[in-house]
Amino acid sequence: MLLKRPYKIYGKITKVSGVYIEASNYSSGVGDEVKIDGGFRGEIIGFDKENAIIMCFDSNVSVKPGTKVLYTEEPVSTYVSEEFLGKVLDPFGNIIHSTNTKSVRSLKKLPLSLENYSPMERKKISKIFDSGVRTINALTTIGIGQRIGVFAGAGVGKTTTLGMIMKHSSSDVVVLALIGERGREVREYVEDILGEAFEKSVVIVSTSDQTPIMKVKGAISALVHARFFASKGYNVLLVMDSLTRLAMAQREIGLSVGEPPTLKGYTPSVFLTMSKIIEGCGLVGDYGITGIFSVLVEGDDTSLDPVADSAMSFLDGHILLSRKMADSGIYPAIDPLKSISRIMPSIVSDEHWNYVLKFKQILSEYYSMEDIIKVGLYRKGSNPTIDKVLEHKSDIDNFFMQNPKTGINYNNSLQELKELVSKIS
User: Fold this and answer.
1) Which 8-state DSSP code applies to residue 198?
2) Number of H helices and number of E strands within the chain?
3) Which of 30, 142, 277, 350 has fewest C-beta within 10 Å?
């Protein structure tokens, strides 16, 4: 055990450059907190010869060369508490908004670090996570402890879909990380999207006008809070909106310390940070964290975006939102053929899985003929399967559509799938 120094180590700022500063006489390591004269705080993100490279948490830092820097030799940390339910926090556990005026009495301080679990500590996912969303429950069933992504372009209903899961899922606690969101959207999330579910939620906020390090710390803080609640025996749902903005923030940090840019300027640490955050969820010991991460897709094509492409390889499945369905007024606009849950075959019954395969085969056959049908070249009677689909097209559309205010549990979702497949088979 290292003894704490009986004295304090100070350095001086030698350089101020954009989003980071450099300071001399460092005694701390990467990830340690520093305090700068003037009431500012920051974190050491790297080194350049004799200087420490520091990124400040504050976006408006008024410093100059020669300003004194205190090396705390302690990691950046956050406060956690079961009493944080129904509260909006910054990445360090400071309360921004609360639905009640009661003071928090029980606080615990935890480092903002990404610890890796041993692969053999992880348990096999075997229980169904009831999302409360019919299409997900029936066609892309999620397991407790699974990590899944919601991939969508702008304006396709990503936020609405996430809100439905948070409101109607079977989770005991929701930890929501809003990374790089516009300030006005935070209130919308709390009051409109979460609604009554806010009372069982902890919201960690790092808005778009904050520094890159704050956005990364916001994501890590959400994972630390999720693990804390899971260790208390809660079934935890961690929702991060969005993984893309986390990657952009880590890219800025990586470029600041001289990492080589790769495709679209993303640095190697971006993909390492993404994988660590995602791997932080799962079933470990007697508790589980189910992770749902939103990913912004450029041009609605995941192959064009290195973040989306990498996220798909890290995750246990993906839910793709269809612009075509959204334009047709079908919400949530979940694409039934392009969405997949890799865990699903091992957690649902053979009967359920066979219904899913049958439904997807029928839909695939219909979609392959859709253009011909639209231009009027299809002749009724030439394909019995297509005839059945056309006869019950409104039933299929109604199956995909769901009122955001209404949850549909797993058993009812499965029953409705069975009834629909029976009609169109």
Assistant:
1) G
2) 13, 20
3) 350
